[in-house]
UniProtKB/TrEMBL annotation:
Record's keyword terms, sorted: Aminoacyl-tRNA synthetase, Coiled coil, Ligase
Name under which the protein is recorded: Glutamyl-tRNA synthetase
Coiled coil ranges: 318-345
Top-rank taxon, per record: Bacteria
InterPro entries: Cj0814-like
Classification lineage: Bacteria, Pseudomonadati, Campylobacterota, Epsilonproteobacteria, Campylobacterales
GO molecular-function terms, A-Z: aminoacyl-tRNA ligase activity
Species, as recorded: Campylobacter showae CC57C
Length: 389
């Protein structure tokens, strides 16, 4: 991290107060207010040059009737670290990444990923309609296009996803090939802990809450769902209704998902799956690609991945402008915090109902909390991975 960005994290706490002072003097139009915040805040954070350039560009774009053209895939790929061959790593004559890439990503030495699968990953993860979309809107409401990174450490990102995949698969990775019948026995979903996500209400001195990137390097899978996934999914929805976030990831290892040109979303990650199949069945690499499809993958925080300074300056401005919204935005309680006891769940339900039109008496709340608590403890016990604390 360069010194200007590091300094920004140290001094960022003053931005919200500056924003409130400027809000009283705000003139009509969001761009003029953004100019005041951006030039003053960014100057004190050591990002003045990038911020001024960003503002000039954004103001110009906002006066145009069309969205600025987006960079081509080739332009996007040049932003990724590129050294000797592809993405800085070797590639064999058949287009598979070499052993040096596997080592950097923490993959098994015999794991074979096509270079064009990485191309598709980057294409998907740098689109403005991806979950990374927070990165792509600037202070005028227009888009940066896909040019928000100075560097993408693709090996680090792939390695983080593989670490989760290997935990989900467990002993299944001892197989070299999978038949259609094998796929039926694979997990339908999982829960985990330890993912460091950006938080719209979080501490704005933390890097991830400014660059909007998640860090999954320390993530641990805690529960595996098979035939009981639908039950877990219904429980997730019911808990959400009372203000509780049940961390549940859906997986799709169906033959349909393992085919080329299929994704649950028309705009989703969609690699060429035919290169991972042969007469013996589906390879482990095919399952990994299907896992990534289910994850709707993003570029992750880690390694040499770096968001442009101008984008960080833009994010700081947006944070200042939306301070009030962020402070009052309702946030779901994490299930781990309130499922230690039925009384904790009951308190959460009561607190959540303050924001709702509907009011329930204590007797009804007790019945709801008892039902949800019993359902959660049962499915958590049934799906918990052995030796997981």
């Amino acid at each position: 991290m360069n010194s200007s960005i590091q300094k920004s994290f140290q001094q960022y706490g003053s931005i919200v107060s500056q924003a409130k002072e400027q809000r009283a003097k705000k003139e009509a139009g969001g761009t003029s207010f953004g100019a005041q915040i951006l030039t003053q805040s960014a100057a004190s954070l050591g990002l003045a040059t990038q911020a001024e350039k960003s503002l000039q560009t954004n103001t110009r774009i906002s006066s145009e009737s069309t969205v600025a053209p987006r960079n081509s895939l080739a332009d996007s790929i040049t932003k990724v670290k590129f050294q000797s061959n592809v993405y800085g790593y070797s590639m064999d004559s058949e287009g598979f990444m070499g052993a040096d890439f596997n080592k950097a990503a923490g993959l098994p030495s015999n794991f074979k990923i096509k270079k064009k699968s990485l191309d598709e990953f980057i294409r998907h993860a740098t689109k403005d309609n991806n979950l990374n979309g927070f990165l792509f809107a600037n202070v005028t409401g227009k888009l940066f296009g896909n040019n928000v990174f100075d560097d993408i450490d693709i090996a680090n990102t792939i390695g983080q996803y593989y670490n989760i995949f290997s935990q989900v698969m467990g002993d299944n990775l001892n197989k070299d090939y999978f038949t259609d019948s094998d796929l039926l026995n694979l997990p339908k979903g999982y829960s985990s802990k330890g993912m460091e996500t950006f938080n719209i209400r979080g501490n704005l001195t933390e890097k991830r809450n400014i660059n909007f990137l998640n860090d999954r390097s320390e993530e641990k899978v805690t529960n595996i769902y098979r035939n009981n996934f639908e039950e877990a999914s219904k429980l997730k929805n019911d808990l959400k209704e009372v203000g509780v976030d049940f961390n549940l990831h859906q997986l799709d290892f169906s033959p349909k998902s393992l085919r080329t040109n299929y994704s649950r979303n028309a705009w989703g990650f969609n690699p060429d799956m035919s290169v991972y199949q042969n007469s013996n069945g589906y390879t482990k690499e095919a399952l990994f690609m299907s896992f990534l499809k289910s994850e709707n993958p993003m570029i992750l925080e880690g390694g040499t991945t770096k968001v442009k300074d101008s984008v960080l300056a833009n994010n700081i401005t947006i944070a200042a402008q939306t301070a009030e919204f962020r402070n009052f935005r309702e946030e779901l309680e994490k299930v781990e915090k309130i499922m230690q006891s039925e009384e904790a769940l009951k308190r959460t339900i009561k607190e959540h109902l303050k924001y709702k039109v509907m009011e329930l008496d204590d007797k009804k709340i007790s019945k709801i909390s008892s039902d949800l608590f019993n359902r959660f403890t049962q499915i958590y016990r049934d799906t918990k991975i052995k030796n997981m604390l």
